[in-house]
Please model this.
Amino acid sequence: METIASLTARHARSGRLERICLRPARRTGVTIADSAEIAPEGLRGDHGHARKRAVTLIQAEHLPVIAALAGLEDVAPGTLRRNLVISGINLSALRGRAFRLGGAVLQITGPCAPCSRMEEALGPGGYNAMRGHGGWCAEVIRPGSIAVGDMLRPVDA
Model:
């Protein structure tokens, strides 16, 4: 019989970095990048927080869900102001685990809750559309370079 530990350590496939969004300052537009440098305090060129909220990630597969719940045809990833859009792996299954992305190693620390600005970005009900789908915060374990197309792989225990 398999243990919960062995089940939670196994993923069907690796994730993939689909988009990099940098927020140069609060309340400014998002800059889309093909590559970026993750420093100890977070993404270079991003105004984000250090430590446990150094980098924010969102599941690409959640974007259509958010759009549907907000009554929109689609939602551009930059609208949600998360740094990294990841596809192919369940980010919530990585909570508390280290993972490699490009040359960097990060660790998911907790959910990235939506803020009231989602009402501005998505319209009435935008905040609630994001609840449970707002993405994840991560801390930097090892700095490094990342690029769109890089694979996200859990670090083996």
Observations:
- The first strand starts at residue 15 and ends at 22.
- The two ends are 20 Å apart (CA to CA).
- Residues 63-70 form the longest helix (8 residues).
